[in-house]
Amino acid sequence: MTVPSGLTSGTWSFDPSHSEVGFSVRHAGISKVRGSFQDVDAALTVGSSLEDSSISATIRTASFTSGDENRDAHVRGADFFDVEQFPEMTFVSTSHEGSGETYRINGDLTIRGITKPVVLEAEFNGVAVDPFGATRAGVSASTSISRKDFGLTWNAALEAGGVLVGDKVTITIEAAFVAPAVATV
């Protein structure tokens, strides 16, 4: 399979100022809490074909934020991410399928030292040259995981029934990458 139109071979660098890795999870059975990670690094390596291409990401768990300091401290603690023992989460693609704008990125997600296969439903948003001459590519992706599959089992029972934190976590990614510099002769 061919790589998406406009992507040139080489390793595209992650642009954190134009990207976001976030998630949402059901809270108390009635609403969703959203959060994001502020310290993310990723690389998009484009080969001669889709099969020869890959994407990898490292997320620093201590960079978690949800807009509530008490919740953030709890989520960074041993009940959830345990950032002292597990300072990073990682994703490494294993295969890709699709064409045009729609892709499935298969890969291994590691959280708390537990690695599980996941599928990212991805949309290739195209390639553009910015006003400063840098060539950029954009990708939107999402997946849902069971937090229990990754050892994130803490919960509290609610008086009316149910639990405080849902099991299903929806992960959303908006990623921008910058093309590798072209060597001049």
UniProtKB/TrEMBL annotation:
Transmembrane parts of this sequence: none
Domain Lipid/polyisoprenoid-binding YceI-like: 11-178
InterPro entries (alphabetical): Lipid/polyisoprenoid-bd_YceI (IPR007372), TTHA0802/YceI-like_sf (IPR036761)
Origin superkingdom: Bacteria
Family: Belongs to the UPF0312 family.
Name of the featured protein: Polyisoprenoid-binding protein
Organism: Arthrobacter pityocampae
